[in-house]
């Protein structure tokens, strides 16, 4: 698949929804009265008057603030998509939490904080290389994914119709459904890239809230954080951390696609997952884009076939290399105008994979993130369905590790992120779609340790990135090695001279006889 085709697929996603997890909206808010009044300010606990935890000073019900600055890019419509000024098409009033409190009713802490008053820094969980996990850690991770696939989310639901059809034909029946934790992780990704529905068979495809712009890094970071927190609660282990897959091997094989990890290929049909893997029975959701567009509806979580990876269709592609990572990390500019898939010398665009890893643009080349999705092929090759494959989790965890390394190296101020004229959804203060309660891109433009996690990883460093004292030390060490080599050579030559009967000059008795004198 060419970079142009990948870009078009990112722009041309259909509509969809599923069952469970950190779903689109809190179940408690999806009543007819709340939807008509566009208000989601539930009480914390059993006391009805404790709206947003106000009695404990945790928050209050306020008007939703949505970014109104101009955007650029291919989406030129206005007031046609329910993701514009997210989430005001659905709710104009939500809980605004104070301090480090968070959540739809201010009952949680922000990522990275803990304690009854959310006043203590949480010990960071450590995301490890999936190949470094112990057998117990590996089983906990794989088991948690499988359990999340089968567990309905206790707090959230998703909508099965877009905003104009949300109350159903009668105007009195909210169109919502439950969804499994993992399936809604998929649905979140789908919903961020789906088409705008203008009428039967009339989708507007030039829109993407999580790719092809600066929000690529923060959107996927928050996406993983929500899944990680869901799995911590599901397993009862607050130290649970998502692993990462270091895909920079340069090889033409997927070393996590084994039955011990995320599933090998089935022998009789290599596009399916081996029956020896728990993922062989996983069915996918939100894959029938053209059907959703034709019916002007959203994916409702119905299973649509088995998970697939198409090794046969890889066209001899190879995974990225460590040199590609090094080149990407050498790019000092976070992003450059037009803040889209044709930006050059942009760290974000190189990491996403529309540029070459060194920041130059080529319509014939995919790199890094995009290349890995294309390499996996099958379900993973299509942006709307890619998150169905559990490889998505470890792939994006490593992508986030590269982003975190860049943040630590360059320590960028917030204003390197454009406040306006990025594609819709990608301005700095835009609320990321479809996360709820609202959270802006800027709030995730931090190093990972500020959000309660870190990576056990050492990424490659280029000569240009090394501090001056390191370079000077390297020169000194190199000089010492050369001098030591010369000394060894001199000792060896002297040894040879002695073997041939030569005496050292200092030990020779010199004759005082002149050459003109007789002996």
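-> sequence recovered:
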């Amino acid at each position: 698949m060419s970079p142009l085709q990948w870009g078009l697929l990112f722009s041309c996603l259909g509509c969809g929804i599923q069952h469970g997890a950190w779903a689109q909206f809190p179940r408690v808010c999806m009543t007819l009265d709340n939807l008509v009044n566009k208000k989601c300010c539930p009480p914390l606990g059993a006391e009805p008057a404790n709206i947003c935890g106000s009695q404990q000073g945790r928050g209050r019900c306020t008007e939703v603030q949505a970014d109104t600055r101009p955007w650029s890019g291919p989406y030129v419509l206005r007031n046609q998509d329910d993701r514009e000024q997210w989430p005001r098409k659905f709710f104009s009033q939500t809980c605004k939490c104070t301090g480090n409190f968070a959540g739809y009713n201010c009952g949680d802490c922000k990522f990275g904080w803990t304690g009854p008053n959310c006043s203590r820094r949480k010990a960071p969980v450590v995301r490890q290389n999936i190949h470094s996990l112990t057998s117990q850690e590996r089983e906990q991770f794989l088991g948690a994914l499988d359990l999340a696939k089968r567990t309905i989310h206790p707090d959230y639901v998703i909508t099965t119709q877009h905003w104009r059809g949300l109350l159903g034909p009668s105007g009195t029946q909210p169109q919502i459904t439950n969804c499994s934790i993992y399936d809604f992780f998929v649905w979140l990704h789908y919903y961020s890239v789906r088409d705008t529905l203008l009428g039967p068979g009339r989708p507007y495809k030039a829109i993407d809230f999580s790719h092809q712009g600066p929000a690529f890094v923060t959107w996927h970071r928050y996406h993983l954080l929500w899944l990680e927190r869901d799995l911590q609660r599901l397993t009862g282990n607050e130290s649970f951390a998502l692993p990462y897959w270091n895909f920079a091997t340069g090889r033409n094989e997927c070393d996590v696609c084994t039955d011990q990890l995320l599933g090998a290929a089935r022998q009789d049909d290599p596009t399916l997952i081996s029956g020896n893997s728990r993922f062989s029975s996983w069915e996918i959701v939100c894959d029938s884009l053209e059907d959703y567009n034709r019916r002007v509806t959203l994916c409702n979580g119905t299973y649509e076939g088995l998970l697939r990876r198409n090794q046969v269709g890889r066209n001899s592609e190879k995974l990225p290399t460590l040199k590609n990572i090094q080149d990407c990390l050498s790019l000092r500019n976070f992003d450059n105008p037009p803040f889209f898939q044709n930006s050059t010398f942009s760290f974000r665009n190189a990491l996403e994979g529309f540029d070459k890893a060194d920041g130059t643009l080529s319509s014939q080349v995919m790199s890094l993130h995009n290349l890995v999705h294309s390499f996996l092929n099958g379900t993973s090759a299509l942006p709307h369905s890619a998150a169905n494959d559990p490889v998505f989790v470890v792939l994006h965890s490593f992508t986030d590790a590269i982003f975190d390394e860049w943040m630590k190296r360059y320590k960028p101020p917030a204003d390197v992120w454009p406040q306006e004229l990025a594609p819709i959804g990608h301005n700095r203060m835009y609320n990321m779609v479809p996360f709820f309660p609202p959270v802006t891109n800027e709030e995730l433009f931090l190093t990972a340790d500020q959000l309660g996690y870190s990576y056990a990883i050492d990424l490659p460093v280029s000569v240009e990135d090394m501090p001056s004292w390191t370079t000077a030390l390297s020169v000194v060490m190199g000089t010492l090695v050369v001098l030591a080599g010369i000394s060894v050579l001199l000792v060896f030559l002297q040894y040879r001279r002695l073997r041939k009967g030569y005496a050292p000059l200092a030990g020779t008795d010199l004759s005082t006889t002149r050459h003109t004198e007789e002996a």
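Residues 1-23, 463-476, 495-519 have pLDDT under 50 and may be disordered.
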